[in-house]
């Protein structure tokens, strides 16, 4: 039996005054939800108005029968939600519209209730809540299914574009900076009781989001929680700031090798970026271009001089090698001691041992170049021996 408010069955009144209710709901939605104000007028008066009318008729049937509609009967809501998803209307906006529609009906009809109809009003409120509970998952499912289809299509298109650029069968729309990135684990990934996979995906999402924020065009990438490639449209004039912001967003110290590429040179730039990254990771986190790693990069290439150079520092222990690397990078013993967490006198002792074992004094400028080359050659041969 239909609800009766103000001495009149609600279902009959909603049906009889449908055009008026549609206008009221449409006005209230566009007033309360700014996103709907941006829709074309023909869509508001056409598709949106039809959805409102369909929703009101479905609700009127609920009031007449006092039974909730089946999922099949609410199929038109699923289709409408899918169209809103296709248009890019946010899901919270879509769901709010249905609540606004029920609120309008309530505001118009309930004030007319007579004292003896209070029981009807309470029952109406309970049924309206149950109706919204039935509508919400249908609308949400329709919206999310369409969004997933859109995301899958976009991901597939991006993957095809990236593959074409990296295998040389496609030309970029403009200059590109290829970033080869090494991403260490976030502390959350190493914490007991924390799902490492989830923590890694969150880190990756932050990294990707920050990269996209710095570009007006899509950033094609093959990034994973441990690293990969990213193609940033444009030149490298702001690259230091981009890498600093991305590193901060990821929450871990990134090692990034960057190679600028013309539209037709992305594949070659990607190969070079990977090679530079392989060398750069041994120098610690930061941004590296080929010009920053010329000696180290050249010594990582096949050469008859590679093994003899590496042999220069072969007598050194791992401790002495580490001390020598830090000292040459920092340029003096006190900063080196601070980084190594030892006394400056310990650094002096270790450097004397280096000189005794190699015949080259790290504190003499004429020996620094050869020692630097020997360390780079040692790293290159070690990498090859371990198949990296």
SSE blueprint and pairings:
Layout: E1 4-5, E2 8-9, H1 10-16, H2 18-32, H3 34-37, H4 41-65, H5 75-87, H6 91-109, H7 118-166, E3 176-182, H8 196-213, E4 220-221, E5 227-233, H9 239-250, E6 255-261, H10 266-280, E7 286-288, H11 294-299, H12 306-312, H13 318-330, H14 333-340, H15 344-358, H16 365-385
Parallel strand pairs: 6-7
Antiparallel strand pairs: 1-2, 3-5, 3-6, 4-5
Organism: Lentzea pudingi
Domain RsbT co-antagonist protein RsbRD N-terminal: 20-158
Protein name: Transcriptional regulator
Which features does this protein show?
388 residues, alpha+beta, Globin-like, Alpha-Beta Plaits, Arc Repressor Mutant, subunit A, 3 domains, 5-stranded mixed β-sheet, two-stranded antiparallel ribbon, 16 helices, elongated
Write up what this structure looks like.
With 388 residues, the chain is an alpha+beta fold. It has 3 domains: 4-150, Globin-like; 171-292, 2-Layer Sandwich (Alpha-Beta Plaits); 306-385, Arc Repressor Mutant, subunit A, CATH 1.10.10. It has helices at residues 10-16, 18-32, 34-37, 41-65, 75-87, 91-109, 118-166, 196-213, 239-250, 266-280, 294-299, 306-312, 318-330, 333-340, 344-358, 365-385, and strands at 4-5, 8-9, 176-182, 220-221, 227-233, 255-261, 286-288. The strands form 2 sheets. Strands 4-5-3-6-7 form a 5-stranded mixed beta sheet. A two-stranded antiparallel ribbon has the order 1-2. Strand 6 (255-261), helix 10 and strand 7 form a beta-alpha-beta unit. Helix 14 packs across helix 15 (344-358). The longest helix is centred in the middle third of the chain and has 49 residues, at 118-166. It is elongated, with a radius of gyration of 33 Å. The mean pLDDT is 87.
């Amino acid at each position: 039996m239909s609800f009766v408010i103000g001495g009149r069955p609600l279902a009959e009144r909603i049906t009889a005054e449908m055009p008026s209710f549609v206008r009221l709901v449409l006005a209230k939605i566009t007033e309360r939800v700014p996103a709907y104000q941006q829709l074309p007028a023909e869509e508001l008066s056409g598709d949106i108005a039809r959805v409102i009318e369909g929703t009101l008729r479905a609700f009127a049937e609920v009031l007449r029968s006092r039974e909730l509609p089946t999922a099949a009967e609410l199929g038109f809501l699923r289709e409408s939600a899918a169209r809103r998803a296709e248009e890019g209307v946010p899901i919270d906006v879509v769901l709010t519209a249905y609540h606004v529609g029920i609120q309008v009906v309530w505001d118009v009809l309930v004030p007319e209730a007579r004292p003896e109809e209070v029981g009807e009003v309470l029952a109406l409120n309970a049924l309206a809540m149950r109706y919204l509970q039935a509508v919400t998952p249908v609308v949400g499912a329709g919206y999310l299914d369409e969004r997933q289809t859109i995301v899958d299509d976009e991901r597939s298109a991006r993957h095809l574009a990236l593959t074409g650029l990296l295998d040389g069968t496609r030309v970029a729309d403009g200059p590109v900076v290829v970033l080869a990135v090494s991403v260490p684990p976030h502390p959350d990934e190493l914490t007991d009781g924390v799902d490492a996979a989830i923590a890694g995906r969150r880190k990756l999402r932050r990294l990707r989001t920050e990269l996209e924020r710095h570009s007006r065009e899509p950033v094609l990438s093959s990034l994973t929680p441990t690293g990969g490639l990213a193609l940033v449209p444009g030149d490298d004039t702001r690259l230091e700031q981009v890498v600093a912001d991305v590193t901060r967003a990821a929450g871990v110290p990134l090692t990034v090798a960057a190679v600028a590429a013309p539209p037709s040179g992305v594949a070659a730039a990607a190969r070079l970026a990977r090679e530079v990254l392989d060398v750069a990771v041994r120098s610690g986190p930061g941004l590296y271009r080929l010009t920053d790693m010329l000696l180290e990069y050249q010594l990582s290439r096949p050469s008859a001089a590679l093994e003899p150079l590496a042999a220069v520092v072969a007598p050194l222990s791992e401790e002495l090698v580490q001390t020598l690397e830090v000292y040459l990078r920092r340029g003096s013993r006190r900063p080196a001691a601070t980084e190594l967490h030892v006394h400056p006198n310990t650094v002096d002792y270790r450097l004397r041992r280096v000189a005794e074992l190699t015949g080259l004094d790290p504190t003499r400028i004429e020996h620094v170049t050869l020692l630097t080359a020997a360390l780079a050659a040692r790293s290159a041969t070690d990498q090859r021996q371990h198949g990296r």
